[in-house]
Write a structure and sequence with these properties.
The chain is α/β, with parallel strands linked by helices and 175 residues long. The protein has six helices and eight strands. It folds into two domains: 4-57, no CATH class; 65-174, Zincin-like.
């Protein structure tokens, strides 16, 4: 199985990554031999194959790093529009909306009623952005992920499970 090696002075342990194109990279400390790296890759063959399959199934959204300020403005306008619409339909209120550059979250809702969204919502298909907003608005009703919460989500998005699956299969590539 082919892979790229990146030797790092800061690394203390070996680390595997599979990028959006399915390329396997092994980050290794200087002191590890080629034989040790080969054994490490062989031992993690199943993990690598699973992540390579996932990378082939992903939809990649390409964006420009230089346009991030515009994406943030667009995300705020979109979030404000959708939050007003869905908060009204659910009969709830929120305090404020913020847009952030989050790595692993699409949105969040505080107990005080503040909503936060990832700026990348501006790059998503509309129905997926709506799902994210609906999800956070429903946290104003139920601050958990219980069956009751998902019933609330279903009121506005019958196909929420499909949208959620599509969201999980998205990846971003910035130039």
């Amino acid at each position: 199985m082919p892979y790229d090696i990146r030797v790092s002075d800061r690394a203390r342990l070996m680390r595997l990554t599979v990028d959006l194109e399915g390329t396997v990279r092994v980050t290794v400390p200087r002191r590890f031999s080629q034989r040790a790296v080969d054994r490490f890759v062989a031992r993690h063959r199943n993990w690598i194959e699973k992540h390579r399959r996932r990378s082939r199934m992903r939809t990649v959204i390409t964006a420009e790093k230089a346009h991030i300020p515009q994406y943030k403005k667009a995300a705020l306008a979109l979030a404000e529009e959708l939050c007003e619409r869905y908060a009204s339909s659910y009969g709830v209120t929120f305090k404020k909306i913020t847009i952030r550059a989050q790595k692993s979250r699409w949105g969040s809702c505080s107990r005080e009623g503040n909503l936060s969204f990832n700026y990348k919502i501006a790059l998503l298909p509309r129905e997926i952005t709506e799902y994210i907003v609906i999800h956070e608005i429903c946290h104003l009703i139920r601050f958990d992920h219980s069956r009751g919460f998902w019933r609330e989500v279903e009121k506005a998005a019958l196909d929420h499970m499909i949208r959620r699956r599509r969201l999980r299969n998205l990846a971003f590539s910035f130039r």
